[in-house]
Design a protein that fits this description.
The protein has 13 helices and 15 strands. The protein is α/β, with parallel strands linked by helices. The strands form three sheets. Strands 2, 3, 4, 5, 6, 7, 8 and 13 form an eight-stranded mixed β-sheet that branches. It has a five-stranded mixed β-sheet with strand order 10-12-11-14-15, with helices on both faces. Strand 14, helix 12 and strand 15 form a beta-alpha-beta unit. The longest helix has 18 residues. It is globular and about 70 Å long.
């Protein structure tokens, strides 16, 4: 399936990351947006609101983030590719309905342009402290997918990928960017519409009498229908059977929730995406993501000039976490140095997966601005002692 040319602004542009996210959504076929303004993500909504009238999309400013997420879910079941955007405080408010989207297997995209927290925190300055919330923020057992772009170009590309993954696995997909990436302006190359490959929604070909909304295929993923197309649909956040009807038993819980988890976990090898730089001969590997992965580069280069074999493992997709790759590297290197704008979140995943085979060091930062590369360099030197 190829992109609709109406939504693709083909050519070379100078865009900030927020505007690039918006253009990625339009190119991916997003035609419904519900959101509430919040710094530093508002530019995504503004760009969408300007562009949607040109292509027939629907933009709604909702009364709050809870309503925004509910509208996104409803639009998806109405047949639209839908998304919203927010930052830390709004992300917290969306969590209950993100869990609902996971339970109802609703394809949709949520962009979180992270800022310094907790609470209102630093509205106009960067942070990366929502990463564990992205994975565990709602209650219960479920799996999601979360991407982490480090440039405006990747903002464009990863929002398209987020929509493709949401359609393929029928799951809410998160794009976890940050204020620096959201507000930096760089060249963004947007290809022609026929060069953008989109994953089509899994609509059933079964007649209404034979269709069950939550009966999975061999890949554990059910087919969808659009509300209003003549199919009987019952969707709920309650534990339900394949008809969608509530069933309050442990057997129904085991069957349903295990599938919600395994449809992602069993495909983790296909979903996981990392970028490796100079890891073949590395004795120290910097693990980072988003803007922190760019800030770490001068420190790695300085260490290399001094004869320290340093490399980088960048989380392009943060969730599912690349457990196998981290375990593989841990057996060969002296240390992982984790660089993130928080006081330890993805660091604990690295420590868990390394299983004591190498040292794990954290270079923490509370947000508000990026790391000083010199602090990262000092951690690299400490790691090789």
């Amino acid at each position: 399936m190829k992109a609709d040319p109406k939504g693709v602004l083909t050519g070379e542009h100078y865009l900030d990351g927020d505007h690039a996210c918006a253009e990625g959504a339009l190119a991916a076929g997003c035609r419904f947006f519900a959101g509430y303004p919040i710094t530093p993500s508002t530019e995504v909504a503004e760009r969408v609101s300007e562009r949607f009238p040109e292509i027939g999309g629907i933009f709604i400013q909702m009364e709050d983030e809870m309503a925004s997420m509910a509208a996104v879910i409803g639009a998806a079941w109405g047949g639209a590719k839908s998304m919203t955007v927010t930052s830390g405080p709004g992300f917290s408010l969306m969590m209950e309905n993100i869990g609902l989207a996971a339970m109802m297997e609703t394809p949709c995209v949520v962009i979180n342009v992270q800022r310094g927290g907790p609470s209102t925190g630093l509205p106009t300055l960067p942070g990366q402290a929502d990463m564990m919330q992205a994975r565990w923020g709602s209650h219960g057992d479920y799996e999601i997918i979360a991407l982490s772009p480090n440039s405006p170009q990747e903002c464009f590309e990863m929002v398209i990928e987020a929509f493709n993954l949401s359609e393929k696995y029928r799951v809410p997909v998160l794009v976890m960017t940050d204020e620096c990436v959201g507000h930096m302006t760089e060249k963004v190359v947007i290809p022609k519409a026929d060069e953008i490959k989109l994953y089509p929604r899994r609509y059933t070909k079964l007649p209404p009498r034979e269709y069950l909304p939550f009966k999975p295929g061999k890949d554990l993923i059910p087919e969808m229908v659009k509300a209003g197309d003549g199919y009987k649909i019952h969707i709920t956040g309650l534990t339900h059977d394949e008809k969608g009807y509530p069933v309050m038993t442990w057997e129904a819980q085991e069957k349903l929730v295990r599938r919600l988890v395994e449809k992602i976990r069993l495909n983790a090898d296909e979903i996981v995406h990392v970028e490796e730089i100079d890891t073949e001969d590395a004795e120290v590997v910097i693990l980072s993501y988003g803007i922190s992965s760019r800030v770490a580069i001068p420190a790695i280069q300085k260490a290399r000039k001094e004869g320290i074999k340093a490399g980088q493992l960048r989380l392009v997709i943060a969730w599912p976490f690349p457990e196998k790759k981290v375990r593989e590297l841990a057996k060969k290197i002296k240390a992982f140095v984790v660089v993130e704008m928080n006081y330890g979140q993805m660091f604990y995943e690295v420590e868990r997966c390394a299983q004591g085979d190498c040292k794990t060091l954290l270079v923490p930062h509370g947000g508000g601005w990026v790391h000083d590369p010199e602090d990262i360099y000092k951690a690299i030197k400490e790691a090789v002692k």
